[in-house]
Amino acid sequence: MSIIQDDDEEWRLQSGKMGLVYANAKCVISATASKDSTQGCFRLRALNHNPCVLRGSGDKFLVAQPLEKAPGLSDLFANLVQDAPLSTRGWTFQERYLARRVLHFCEGFVLFECNTLMASEHDRAGQKYEVKPNIRSNGMLHPRRDINIMECFQSEWDLPPPNSIIGKLGRAQLRRWIHNRKRNPLYDTQKTKRATMLAESARTGVRGAFDFLWRFKGDSLVGKIEFHQSWFEIVELFSVRELTFGKDKGVAIAGLAYFIQQNTGIRYAAGLWVDTLAFNLLWFASGDIACTRPERPVPTWSWTSIDGKISQRLISARVKVDPDWSTDWLKHTFRCPWVEVSPFIADPSLIEEDAVDDLVHNATLRLQGYICRA
Q1: Burial class (CB in 10 A: 0-12, 13-18, 19+), 332
Q2: d(CA 361, CA 23)
């Protein structure tokens, strides 16, 4: 893909389509550790984590084992990808997360990530992303009948004799009971249902958030809240990246928005979404910002109108996922963490002023709501 330079109209039309290049790639090779185009992909390997072949003869080798075990995948990605020079640039954000697979050439390591897992040369089997069990990856809630199945804890075997009787059983009698016990068929049903529900659940992390957004088919208030949460998970990480030209802030994330709008039909509006405006407007600048608002053709109610870290105020107390097979885990994991949410904003309407490729970049917003004492 090529864009005619120094042509503003060409830039407006083509820049939003740049993400298509990465979205349609089988695998993107990323010079993640490089500061500019002169440094290339390859770095010296981290010798203290890799075996060193001292001598070889035929199929036999003398190998010096590494002094240290390689860090875990979470630490490697946090230190070598998230903190890498390439990850500070605004335009590379959509390049990374629109790509289905990325091979990162980092400082001392080669790392890999795709839409389901992350891996390294030291952990080739990889590590799958955790999930949000309370909601499915398409924004729909788990069926109530499935949650009911999970809430009734089933033991793997027949219930043992009461404690008052166990104390009176001899070793031979106890061994005989263990040998003759029967497997609980409801346990297998519940275990299979649990695996299915977890496989259908939304994944955590930015890749999981984007996957959730473009697959979104939910129509409940809870689903829309999760849509809002996932979008601002992306916005928060994107907002701290640097752009040579501040006016590109909305355009540099438009590639992600384009895919989401095309697949869901939800209208994008200058960094926010029409169906979730009541929640999206809860954004605020949580980092250092300039004293004066930069001049750019975007509405002031959009987070793209300022520079600095963006956060949002709608926070839920998520239930921690306990990997142990316990009654408490079964009761709460698949339940929705949102008990009561009532938006104060009603009847929002958008008057378009500037749209490119069907994405609204500038508009006037009209809405009704309640005024509360702060």
Answers
A1: middle
A2: 22
Whether residue 226 sits in one domain with residue 118:
no
Radius of gyration, CA atoms only, the chain? 26
- Would you give the end-to-end CA distance of the chain in angstroms? 50
Q: Looking at the 3D structure of the chain, how many domains does it have?
A: 2
Range of the domain at 264: 129-338
Name the pLDDT band for 7 (thresholds 50, 70, 90). low
Average pLDDT over residues 316-340: 57
Residues 44 and 87 occupy one common structural domain: yes
pLDDT at position 159 is: 63
Give the mean pLDDT of 244-267: 87
Q: Is the dihedral of CA 256, 259, 260, 266 positive or negative?
A: positive
Judge if 150 and 123 occupy the same domain. no
Contact (CB, 8 A) for 129 and 313: no
The torsion defined by the Cα of 348, 220, 210 and 345, in degrees rounded to 10, comes to 20
pLDDT at position 290 is 67
| Contact call for residues 118 and 77 (beta carbons, < 8 A) | yes
- Cβ atoms within 10 Å, residue 252: 24
Which has more confidence, 51 or 367? 367
Cα separation, 313 vs 229, whole angstroms: 10
Q: How far apart are the C-alpha atoms of 99 and 95, rounded to whole Å?
A: 6
Distances from the Cα of 12 to the Cαs of 2, 8, 248, 295, 303, in angstroms?
A: 13, 6, 10, 17, 20
